[in-house]
Amino acid sequence: MSCAANALSSSVLLADYAHARAGDKGNHLNIAVFVFEPGHYDWLVAMLTPERVADHFHARRSSAVHCHALPMLGGLNIVLENVLEGGVNQSAGLDRHGKTLSYHLLGLYLPAPAATSHQQ
Fold first, then answer.
1. pLDDT digits (tens, 9 = 90+) for 23-42
2. Strand partners of residue 22
3. Which of 30, 47, 92, 101 has its CA 20 to 30 A from that of 108?
């Protein structure tokens, strides 16, 4: 197996480990991501860095990405600034609120988390 094939086989789809909701504030997008299993929270925080999220959304040309940890809820609130083409009142886009962009994030492939005790 090649290195690329081996790396791909050890990657997991974020949607298999978390769910998300999205909303807008003007031209900014909020995506709240929550793990299904509490044991995966630290993995989520380590994997969804502002740099990784900005790279995944590079076509949207965000001016800044912030990831706010929500440990009591097992999630992250991710804010992408200036990605909604002006927001609801200015954009002619079909998804002016950015609701579908949470699915774009959940389509991200990440290195697999370490097995938790209840998975072994």
1. 888 889 999 999 999 999 99
2. 31
3. 92
Distance CA 41, CA 105 (A): 16
pLDDT per 10-residue tile (average), the chain, 120 residues: 56 97 91 97 97 94 95 97 80 72 94 69
List the chain domain ranges: 13-110
3-class SS of residue 118:
helix
Give the closest residue to 79 by CA, choosing from 42, 32, 30: 30
- Check if the beta carbon of residue 62 is closer than 8 Å to that of residue 83: yes
The answer to whether 41 touches 35, Cβ cutoff 8 Å, is yes
The two tokens of residue 120 are 């072994």
